[in-house]
Write a structure and sequence with these properties.
Elements: E1 58-64, H1 68-71, E2 83-86, E3 92-96, E4 114-118, E5 130-131, E6 149-159, E7 162-171, E8 174-183, E9 191-197, E10 207-212, E11 217-223, E12 230-231, E13 234-239, E14 250-255, E15 258-261, E16 272-282, E17 285-293, E18 296-303, E19 316-322, E20 331-333, E21 335-340, E22 349-358, E23 361-370
Parallel strand pairs: 19-20
Antiparallel strand pairs: 1-23, 2-3, 3-4, 4-5, 6-7, 7-8, 8-9, 10-11, 11-13, 12-16, 13-14, 14-15, 16-17, 17-18, 18-19, 21-22, 22-23
């Protein structure tokens, strides 16, 4: 697909201030050299930075979660990301990115984000049987796509009766700002809370993911949102009653010979080119999954506390790339995403993986991963 259109001014509600016809999503080549030099079906890939540890990891596809036959009845046959979140009512919501009707990517009725719902939230029984908006999955927030802008979700999570959603706004990979929304009706409607400038912390506060801890805090990992840019991984914390207050976010950083809260934020692991990231509290510890860009794979780390040393924590490869027609086990053509499905655990991890290699192969899928090593205790 063609290079991004230049960004036109964006108002706080995310609408473009420019004029002109909407364009299909102007993404750079989604995963350059997606399978180059990596046709392995085993989950072991090495390379710098942060070579993935040798392991017994295996994986397999459970099901497609989207596609014409599955989500076409919600006017969402073509969609991606599908960030899974358990709603207060017990259903599972999949919050998706750029979504189209018609014959493929770039078709009519471009919306982002949208939300598809499974009334059964058990990881082994997920089936999309509803959508926010009913027979037409509606855009969850105002976004006209004028000048090629869009609203890409980076995370959705639940605290008590409230759901929160973080969005990256602007032309893809030219993030003007990010904003934060809340829902008190299981994701049916969303209210704007706040926003952050795209250049904050050198752009490394654009893509955010939140772990809901049992100590009253949300722990937040963040990177730049541009797969072509090397970024650190920053850590902040915020009280669970104040995620909509930008001033309440406290950074974790290294200064004066020590790590401490309140220091200027510094990267908590080796800088690299990041795709999607997902940070979750799990089984008394924490899990981080992400799309690694070089070498291309989807990885996981498991650790005991939010401030554990990620420089030395093993990186375990869950999904490896291949070419269309050679997909088997945990080898996926043009994979991205890798969001943890609530209710799964280290010993039986279910993740949402996206795929896009042509206009008709753009979907959300569920994978099951086994053989992962949990955090050291």
């Amino acid at each position: 697909m063609h290079e991004p259109h230049r960004f036109r001014s964006v108002r706080p509600d995310g609408r473009s201030g420019g004029s002109g016809r909407p364009h299909p999503p102007s993404r750079r080549s989604l995963l350059r050299s997606a399978a180059a030099g990596s046709l392995a079906a085993a989950g072991i890939v090495t390379g710098a930075p942060g070579a993935a540890a040798t392991s017994r990891v295996t994986g397999s596809k459970v099901r497609d979660l989207s596609g014409p036959a599955l989500t076409g009845r919600f006017a969402a046959p073509w969609t991606d990301l599908g960030i899974p979140v358990r709603c207060p009512d017990g259903s599972m919501l999949f919050v998706c990115g750029d979504t189209f009707d018609g014959g493929g990517v770039g078709g009519p009725d471009w919306r982002s984000p949208v939300a598809l719902r499974s009334s059964n939230a058990a990881p082994g029984s997920l089936v999309v049987d509803g959508a926010v908006g009913g027979s037409r999955a509606v855009g969850l927030v105002p976004e006209g796509h004028t000048g090629g802008t869009t609203a890409i979700p980076s995370d959705v999570f639940t605290v008590g009766p409230t759901m929160y959603m973080h969005l990256m706004r602007g032309v893809i990979y030219e993030t003007h700002h990010t904003d934060f929304w809340r829902s008190d009706d299981n994701g049916e409607t969303w209210q704007y809370l706040c926003q952050w400038p795209g250049g904050l912390h050198g752009g490394q506060f654009q893509q955010k993911t939140y772990a809901v801890a049992d100590d009253g805090y949300l722990y937040v990992l963040s990177t730049a949102f541009d797969r072509d840019v090397t970024s650190g991984l920053l850590l902040h914390r915020v009280r669970q009653d104040a995620p909509g207050d930008p001033a309440a976010y406290e950074p974790w950083g290294y200064a004066g010979g020590a790590w401490a809260w309140g220091n200027p934020p510094t990267t908590v692991t080796s800088p690299r080119r990041w795709g999607e990231i997902c940070f979750r509290a799990m089984g008394g510890g924490y899990a981080l999954t992400w799309l690694n860009m070089s070498p291309l794979d989807i990885r996981a780390q498991f650790f005991a506390t939010p401030t554990s040393n990620l420089f030395t924590t093993a990186e375990q490869t869950m999904i490896v790339p291949t070419v269309p027609g050679r997909e088997t086990g945990n080898a996926v053509a043009s994979p991205y995403g890798g969001f943890i499905i609530p209710g799964s655990g280290v010993d039986d991890l279910h993740i949402v993986v996206s795929q896009w290699y042509d206009a008709q192969n753009y979907r959300v899928m569920q994978y099951r991963v086994n053989g992962l090593d949990g955090p050291a205790r």
